[in-house]
Design a protein that fits this description.
The structure holds two protein chains of two kinds. By secondary structure, chain A is mainly α. Chain A is built from eleven helices and four strands; from the N terminus they run ααααβββααααβααα. Chain A has a domain of 213 residues. In chain A, 70% of the residues lie in helices and 4% in strands. In chain A, strand 2 and strand 3 form a beta hairpin. In chain B, the strands form three sheets. Chain B has a seven-stranded mixed sheet, with helices on both faces. A five-stranded parallel sheet of chain B has the order 2-1-3-4-5, sandwiched between helices. A two-stranded antiparallel ribbon of chain B has the order 11-12. The chains are: A mainly alpha, B alpha/beta. Chains A and B meet through helix 1, helix 9 and helix 10 of A and helix 8, helix 9 and helix 10 of B.
Chain lengths: 309, 409
């Protein structure tokens, strides 16, 4: 059996999830030059928001066709509220402070969110079951689940909507202007505070979509799920060129595929048996990042920004 | 108002009195007033592996309650001090230091993870304090680094009521090959002391029996996406997946494996034997197997009361894997304190260091019927009870399918 198509599909799916989370890092960085390290935890709270809708609000036996959109809504509300709240209470008071201050706040916030969920969400100190979409389809030699289809469709729709929003809408153009130069944008009458809040909200929404896809795909969620996914998504954002929303998606997909292929095939190369397999996937992912940064420090789709360096 | 005041005063006085006894811990035996000794517990009480970790804490708690209620050691009350190691070696080591530094602690029960035990052994040995793990299974903890060729006990203060992975891995290999008639296995581990050791022994023994290992791989603890691994397993034609590690990852692996249409059972060790595994993996866990040390707790007549108490108290966590072993480990320490008192004319030795070393000797000489069978230790500190059981998930619960002892090839 030729496993390459299946492995590419595995990588593409994992990468789409990284990409959706990476948007949140990239938009916030693009506008306020802040790396919101709590973004992985915003993703995690989105998953718990969706879980709450399914287990505590919807009646038993609700069909998944109805449940998934409502879970998406619940997850999005929670993630957006937390993202916007974080901006308002954790980052805005520190705007203008040295860069290190908000970074430390972000790390503190990420730990705080983990602990709040672990201590106060029923049963969240260990993995909690999440409803799955487990029906499978065979397309040639590739097997994919309904959850995978949900993920890929959601990722395409989200990206398309974001592209149209940023290019065509007034707010989107205001966003581009703020990203280019916040001070001048403000002088031109753009309410930059509002733009920043919108960037956080969109990031939170995308993270919630990724979180629901994650729950449906893996069947359980826990309070630590945001850490590694957040780190990978941040890597994807840097890989694609931080600040560039298309770069975030591309970076996510490149990272997902690279990781999957590395863990699938590197140990088949003679002499490389010790350096392959699942447990080396992260190592190769970060090697790729280092290589890209060495030869293209601005990332795959990033632009050289001399005045900001 | 007067009543309230007097109640408060009495309460405060009682508390102060208790406090002062706790601090010194050496006023034992003086006519009626009880001495309080502490038994330390170290296990993961939050996060990863906490289901089984809490089972250890509460198993020990019930033993302490029983000892106090039945006045096992006249004039002595015991209490528990449970510390959370979060399944991390460094935390375990600092917990061990905290326990040895507390001058009321006479012995310790724990930890759960073999990797954590490695960092704790030296600390307890330096303080000459007995440590009994109800759960560690890595052979080198009792038999030294070169246990396969030259057995040598590294620390005389370390004991365990669990049997070793050498026996557990072999037992699993035997059951996979002869019982399940599976001839092609894929072996995966999580690179931790426990998981990697178990997988290695399974791999060796399975091949010796005539089975074929069609592939091996390793995962990181904390990984969530095993898509690439699952595709590899699917392509290898394996009819069994053996996993050395804990339930956190194996529950995800089995789910992703079955979602990808690979309907082969996942077989693991006692690190997977928890209700959380089934909760997390859902229907995908049906038919999966795990070995666990000892015989099923609920088939032991002596453990019936224990299980009832555990349920009545509404304790969280899982007594299934190690609760009864933690009970027996705690009892061994309490009995050693009693032996020290008996040898001293009915009085507990007043010097804590003297008492601790006498407890070590007492534990070594343990010989009593515990909940899990006869409790005694061999010259390495290993339990002499070598029984193991294979469990299988059936209709959403672990059912025991075969109990026996490992047959080393």
């Amino acid at each position: 059996m030729n496993t390459l198509p299946q492995q590419l599909a595995n990588g593409l799916l994992l990468g789409s999830m990284y990409g959706l989370i990476a948007i949140g890092y990239t938009m916030v960085y693009g506008i306020v030059q802040l790396i919101n390290f709590a973004h992985g935890e915003i993703f995690m709270t989105g998953a718990f928001g969706a879980l709450t809708v399914y287990f505590y609000i919807l009646p038993d036996g609700t069909s998944m066709a109805l449940a998934v959109p409502l879970m998406l809504l619940g997850g999005a509300i929670v993630a957006i509220l937390i993202a916007v709240g974080a901006e308002r209470f954790a980052y805005r008071p520190l705007r203008g402070a040295p860069r290190l201050a908000p970074l430390i706040t972000a790390i503190g916030l990420s730990l705080a969110l983990q602990e709040v969920v672990r201590n106060f969400y029923p049963g969240a100190d260990r993995a909690r079951a999440f409803p799955g979409l487990d029906a499978t389809h065979d397309i040639g030699s590739v097997t994919i689940k309904d959850a995978d289809i949900f993920l890929i469709v959601a990722a395409i729709l989200c990206m398309a909507a974001l592209a149209i929003f940023v290019r065509r809408s007034r707010t989107g153009r205001a966003m581009q202007a703020t990203a280019q130069d916040p001070d001048t944008a403000q002088l031109m009458g753009i309410d930059t505070n509002r733009i920043i809040v919108i960037a956080f909200a969109i990031g939170g929404f995308f993270a919630a979509v990724a979180a629901v896809a994650y729950g449906l795909k893996y069947g359980n969620v826990d309070y630590r799920m945001g850490f590694l996914m957040g780190l990978k998504a941040f890597t994807a954002a840097v890989l694609g060129g931080i600040g560039n929303i298309y770069g975030a998606m591309l970076g996510g997909i490149v990272l997902g595929i690279a990781e999957t292929l590395a863990s699938a095939y590197i140990d088949e190369i003679p002499g490389m048996q010790q350096l392959g397999g699942q447990s080396w996937a992260n190592v190769w992912a970060f090697c790729l990042l280092i290589l890209v940064l060495l030869f293209r420090p601005q990332g795959l789709l990033g632009e050289r920004v001399a005045d900001r360096a | 108002m007067v009543i309230l005041t007097s109640v408060l005063t009495t309460g405060a006085l009682t508390l102060t009195a208790c406090g002062s006894r706790d601090d010194s811990g050496d006023k034992g035996g003086d006519g009626g007033s009880d001495t309080t000794f502490t038994i330390g517990v170290d296990a993961p009480l939050s996060g990863e592996n906490s289901t089984t970790g809490l089972g250890i804490q509460y198993g020990a708690q019930i033993a302490v309650d029983d000892a106090n209620k039945n006045n096992w050691v006249p004039g002595v009350k015991f209490k528990l001090k449970a510390l959370d190691d979060k399944a991390q070696p460094a935390t375990g080591q600092s917990n061990a230091t905290a326990l040895t530094g507390d001058k009321t602690v006479v012995g310790a029960v724990g930890p759960l993870n073999s990797g954590v035990a490695q960092t704790m052994q030296q600390v307890f040995a330096s303080a000459n304090m007995a440590q009994i793990s109800p759960a560690n299974t890595a052979p080198e903890l009792t038999q030294g680094k070169n246990w396969q060729t030259d057995k040598k006990r590294p620390f005389k203060t370390y004991f365990r009521t669990a049997t070793t992975d050498e026996l557990q891995g072999s037992f699993a290999a035997g059951y996979a090959y002869n019982g399940l008639k599976k001839k092609k296995a894929f072996v995966v581990d999580d690179k931790q002391t426990y998981g990697a050791g178990l997988a290695k022994i399974f791999n060796e023994q399975y091949k010796k029996l005539g089975g074929k290992v069609v592939g091996t791989d390793h995962v990181n603890t904390g990984d969530k996406d095993f898509g690439s691994l699952v595709t590899k397993i699917k392509n290898s034609g394996a009819d069994l997946l053996y996993y050395g590690g804990q339930y956190d990852e194996s529950a995800l692996i089995t789910k992703q494996l079955k979602d990808a249409g690979v309907k082969i059972p996942l077989f693991g060790g006692d690190g997977m034997f928890a209700s959380t595994y089934i909760e997390a993996a859902g229907k995908s866990s049906e038919g999966d197997l795990a070995t666990a040390i000892g015989v099923p707790a609920d088939t032991l007549p002596a453990a019936k009361t224990f299980i009832q108490t555990y349920k009545d108290k509404g304790y969280k966590g899982d007594y299934g894997a190690y609760g009864a072993y933690a009970y027996d480990a705690t009892t061994a320490i309490i009995k050693a304190v009693k032996a020290a008192a008996d040898a001293n004319g009915g009085k507990v030795p007043t010097d804590i260091n003297d008492l601790r070393s006498k407890v070590v000797d007492g534990v070594q000489k343990s010989d009593f019927e515990g909940l899990t069978g006869k409790i005694s230790f061999d010259q390495y500190g290993d339990t002499t009870n070598k029984q193991l059981t294979v469990y299988q998930v059936e209709k959403g619960a672990w059912k025991d399918v075969e109990t026996g002892t490992a047959d080393l090839k």
